[in-house]
Amino acid sequence: MNIHIRTMNMADLSAVHALQCRAHPDHYHEPVEALASRLVLGPDFCLVAVESAGVSPQGLPNGGVSASLSAYFLAHPWAGDPPPLHEALPGRLSEPAHYLFLHDMAVCPRRQGLALGSQLHDALLARAARHGFAELRLVAVGTARSYWQKLGFGECDGVGLHSSYGDAVLMRKLLVPQVLAGYSVSAA
Ligand SMILES: CC(C)(COP(=O)(O)OP(=O)(O)OC[C@H]1O[C@@H](n2cnc3c(N)ncnc32)[C@H](O)[C@@H]1OP(=O)(O)O)[C@@H](O)C(=O)NCCC(=O)NCCS
Known about the structure:
Blueprint: E1 2-7, H1 13-23, H2 32-41, E2 47-52, E3 69-78, E4 99-107, H3 116-130, E5 135-141, H4 144-150, E6 154-155, E7 168-174
Parallel strand pairs: 4-5
Antiparallel strand pairs: 1-2, 2-3, 3-4, 5-7, 6-7
Coenzyme A (COA) binds next to strand 4, helix 3 and helix 4.
């Protein structure tokens, strides 16, 4: 089995949505439109891990087909408090991004425990650093807090989260900023 990580595209979204519904409890299932808006806002930061199986049934190279989606990561630039779940985001930010927001990651059950999650995290970290982001943030729900702690995220105190997250905690990780490229990033 050969799994590779590449940038997500719109054609992946129905498989991404199906995996979200499989991996998360009902409360966290989002409309495809909400996922699509994250991809529009962060096209360089939304990733998929796909199993390459040679050629698709249509004879096209498998790189554009997501029938074999193993995992995904949705992330986008953001400023202010984390956006509510389930809602579509505006196509562009009205102010400079302060940080990269990690919206959601899921690995399909049969591929969990193979470090795909940490590989996606590393790929995203490299992209975030390339674009000059100094900080990553996410909202950890359920038992995920300990998972993100292992990946170097710490809890932030005193920040109100939208009720759509339920029982959750805001977490962040600081990066060393490198080259600013393509995004306007300001210090928080
Ligand atoms: C959490 C998740 C993304 C991890 O992906 P993965 O590729 O299986 O994880 P890795 O192989 O990189 O890491 C495995 C480690 O994470 C731990 N882990 C997996 N899921 C966890 C969870 N929900 N909470 C806490 N720890 C978890 C495993 O116990 C394992 O620990 P170990 O290294 O000490 O043995 C995946 O299990 C998943 O999709 N879960 C359902 C959706 C979810 O909870 N997403 C994260 C919140 S957005």
